[in-house]
Amino acid sequence: MMPMGSTLADQKSGFRGQVTKVSGESVWVNRLEEIGLIPGQRIVLLSKLSLGEPYIVEYRNISVALRREEAACLTVQEQIVEKEKN
Amino acid sequence: MSAALKDERIFEAKEEELPSPSSTKFVALIGSPNAGKTSVFNHLTGSKFRTVNYPGATVDYSYGQTRTEWGETFSVVDTPGTYSLFPKSFEEEITLKVLYEHPKLGSAHAVIAVIDVTQLSRHLVLVKQLIESGFRVVVALSMMDLLKNAGKELCLKDLESNLGCPIVPINGLNGSGVQDLVKLTRKLLLLEKAESKKLTEWKPSEIEMAARDCLDLEGRYVKKLRESELDSLLITRGIDKFLLHPFFGLFIFMAIMMGLFSSIFWAAAPFMDWIDSGFSSMAEQILNLNAGNLFFDFLGNGIVASMGAVLVFVPQIFILFAGISILEDSGYLARAAALVDKPLSLIGLNGRAFVPLLSGYACAIPAMLAARTIPSRQERWLTLFIIPLMSCSARIPVYGLLLSFLFWSEAAWKPGLAMAGIYLCSLFVGAAACAMLAKVRKFDEKSFFILELPYYRRPQILKTIKTAWARTSAYLRKAGPAIFVFAVIIWAGTTFPNYQAQSDFEKLETSYAARTGRLIEPAMTPIGGDWRTGVSLIAAFAAREVFVPSLAVILNVTDDNEETAQQSLLEKMQSAKRADGSALFTFSSTIGLIIIFMIALQCMATVGVARKEFGDWKTPLIQLVSFNIIAYFLALAVVWTLRSIGFS
Predict the structure, then answer these.
(1) Which of A4, B19, B149, B192 is deepest in the core (most CB within 10 A)?
(2) Any idea what the CATH number is for the domain that residue A18 is in?
(3) Domain tally, chain A
(4) Residue of B517, B538, B541, B534 whose CA lies nearest to B608
(5) ipTM, 2 decimals?
(6) In this structure, how many other beta carbons lie within 10 angstroms of the beta carbon of residue B103?
């Protein structure tokens, strides 16, 4: 089990899970939510680019590149079994 | 409910019965990035649009009239893509200003919201905000074919009545549906203008709520006919496995950029030669019409030669922007920005600074215009500041001459390698300057990257040509007059007062420019030059490459044969002596000149464009003064060091 409150920034490539909280710098939080990264959203961390950043995240049929500090705004929970649906 | 559907009579009216919409009314085209807004705009207006500058700002938007084949025309304004009505970048602010308070047009009478149906839930949030602000909205729904291919279906009528605004499916490729969109929009224009108000910025909880509502709408109205994923998504995922590979991704990126970069040089070279020799021979013919006549001299050496100086860069700029447009359309450019974001962030920049900086290697002017897409003020400011340090192509003839002098009658790879060294050096200087400036100049704002990576698509040739031409004509309009005016001023400086002199040498030797050259000789001496290098450096303010021909004149090269002219110039450079009898062009003084050309800001057209882009005179003047002073003292330090360790 992953500790509670870990963020997307700490995850490895291939991580699947859902966003549980969006918090941090307000510009980042607003933009992340505007593009649909809201609590409950399922996401996949496709990869991290050559120098460890940006993170490539896929959700709702699109992918988005985020810097590490932006990914750190997304508190996530790993999807272990198909329990919840958003 | 929006007011759009309330007045049923208007919607039932026949085309012919409608009065003509007033000419001051305009429709704003709004949409998230990658929603297909530009292709809707192109279908609406055909080729009848122009790119205009937002008054007082530096963001371009397109303004056009709908095509006449669709009946009564109306004005449409295309705006920079935005995710919400709460702007987070300079460009997004312009979208909002066009919508609410355009200084010439007022506020939009109606809004066409372009949304991608495969991204329905995300893009609907913006539509909701537009409706809540009170605008009359018609939704243009793109990518319907993709939805169908993925085995999904949209209950359009239900969504329409839920939103309370009309929805028109359109096809961005063939333009089907655009005619219906025009008809509906024209009807909205006949309704009284609705009161629109600016929304107060939503709190995260409100954004979340709207996002959830829109997710819910998508769930309700998009029916899954079978379980399958979007083809485009699968293809994109497959390609990204290679292009965004943690290891190979960077190599592929470098290969693509090397390809684009080298094509600026070899593919453009024949066209540049053609323009160059065309204008030279035209100037010559004009001079021959009436040799020694001042007016014909002005026409030939002043006007025609300066026009050549402006036009010679057109092939490079066109090829560069055609290449960038292909990369952008295909979807790779967003990935390229992501790939270089990390290294650029180390010197205080953003991945989005990549295209402007790359363009700077062709010409600083279109590069500065390209910097408008950088959302953060600080990063845009930094990018604009260091663009003149990128080695633009006007410096190539100068480096070419100086390197062939340094490596005279040596193996050809040596000057080639030295040229690559100069490029690396200038890259390093730019990066160092940027890193230092980032520490000094801080804006009170948080930088962000958050970049959507669109699906890969096949680029369209016609669109590529259009975009490249738009950029090239922007260069001609912005840089042309400035380069031209300065070229004419330098012509006057090198011609007067002794314009009736027998030879070009005598004319230049006694000109105002030469007097200025002698005036600055005390400054030239420490870096190994004299008044003649001074004159040529002054002439380079018309355009950097003018350094070469003016050096030829001042050293009295009389060889008119193009093949051997360079050879005789090199011989003259070899034998030129300073007043004290020492050689004028030595190893150290030539290196000193290379350093000056690497750093100095000699291009007045760039300064003019920089003034517009920075929005003030102060910053470009600081650029002008500091770059030139630093160039001089760095050259001085290097010349002095080289001499003290035993180089001539």
Answers:
(1) B149
(2) 2.30.30.90
(3) 1
(4) B541
(5) 0.87
(6) 9
